[in-house]
Amino acid sequence: MKAAILKPGELPVNDRGNGARTIPLVTRKCGSTSVINGITEFDPGAKIGVHFHNCEESVMILEGEAVAEIDGERVPLKAGDTTWIPANVPHRFLNEGTGKMRIFWTYADIDATRTMVETGVTQTIDEEHAKARRA
């Protein structure tokens, strides 16, 4: 297997709606067989609905200020702060600040899924990225 160099500024951006955009980085497409990761950028006021995954997730705040809502508890975060979220724990990240917020996320399974709590809809992260609109 060949190593990959990934440059976010040269990769496609997926518009997730509601002021959030994702750049998938390490994925099946680049040859990964065990983890996936990427960067999601949130405009002021942007948030993603409460959801959970079938695997562990870690999120690091790269820029701005965030609110992590994990299993109903809200925690303010700043650049450098990092979370670890076990499988099946409901969570989301919100940008309640006035500037841009960016996170770096990693899923511990190449077949990671996201289940939206409100609707119960589950899809793989790969499917989610394939369906997202390109910004």
Which keywords apply here?
46% strand, 135 residues, globular, mainly beta, three-stranded antiparallel beta sheet
Could you explain the architecture of this structure?
- This protein is mainly β.
- The protein has one helix and 13 strands; from the N terminus they run E-E-E-E-E-E-E-E-E-E-E-E-H-E.
- The longest helix is centred in the C-terminal third of the chain and has 7 residues, at 125-131.
- The radius of gyration is 14 Å and the shape is globular.
- The N and C termini lie far apart (31 Å).
Order of helix and strand elements from N to C terminus: EEEEEEEEEEEEHE
Structural class: mainly beta
Overall outline: globular
Q: Tally of extended strands?
A: 13
Average predicted local confidence, pLDDT: 94
**Strand numbers in spatial order across the main sheet:** 8-5-10-3-2-1-13
pLDDT < 50 runs, ≥5 residues: none
* Portion in strands: over 45%
Distance between the termini: 31 Å
DSSP summary: helix tally: 1
State the major sheet. Answer: 7 strands, antiparallel
Report the radius of gyration as a whole number of Å: 14 Å
Indicate the percent of residues in helices. under 10%
